[in-house]
Design a protein that fits this description.
With about 160 residues, this protein is α/β, with parallel strands linked by helices. About 40% of the residues lie in helices and about 10% in strands.
Length: about 160
């Protein structure tokens, strides 16, 4: 879904996927981020727990960009963070709990949710969210792309 969304916003976008190997090694996160930036990567979206701190440090040290996940934390690296994505975990917890209490839990199944279902949100109005590297035209395109996912006009493949 990430790749398709990025390509819908900007044709020709490529994605470089790396795995830290754990969720806590900030040094490894920094090492991978520096290698990615050196290879020409413009923006890194770290989803690696505590190892993300190494990625943030690498972005600050190299003057490169980040898109953060889980929280609107533009203040962690002002000028380097171009976007933040949040998860509505409270909504999911409430729905799963209500389903269980109502005896409607479908055991042994998985449910994938995201932007279209309202669980993934892109923060555009938090303090510090107006990074000058992201133009008004880019913001408009992002808003349009997200809205097309929410309305079902753009359907992302499940991986």
């Amino acid at each position: 879904g990430y790749k398709e969304g990025a390509q819908a916003a900007f044709q020709g976008t490529t994605v470089d996927f790396r795995i830290v190997g754990n969720w806590y090694d900030a040094s490894k996160g920094s090492e991978l981020a520096n290698a990615m930036y050196k290879s020409g990567v413009d923006v890194i979206l770290p989803i690696c727990g505590g190892a993300s701190q190494g990625v943030v440090s690498a972005a600050v040290e190299t003057g490169k960009y980040l898109a953060l996940f889980d929280t609107a934390a533009f203040d962690k690296a002002p000028g380097n963070i171009i976007s933040c994505t949040t998860l509505d975990q409270k909504k999911m917890s409430a729905e799963i709990t209500a389903s269980y209490l109502a005896g409607k839990t479908e055991w042994g199944t998985a449910k994938t949710v995201g932007v279209a279902e309202g669980y993934v949100n892109f923060v555009q109005d938090a303090p510090g969210s107006k990074n000058p590297a992201v133009t008004d035209d880019m913001r408009a395109k992002m808003t349009e792309t997200v809205e097309s996912i929410r309305t079902g006009k753009l359907v992302l493949q499940q991986n």
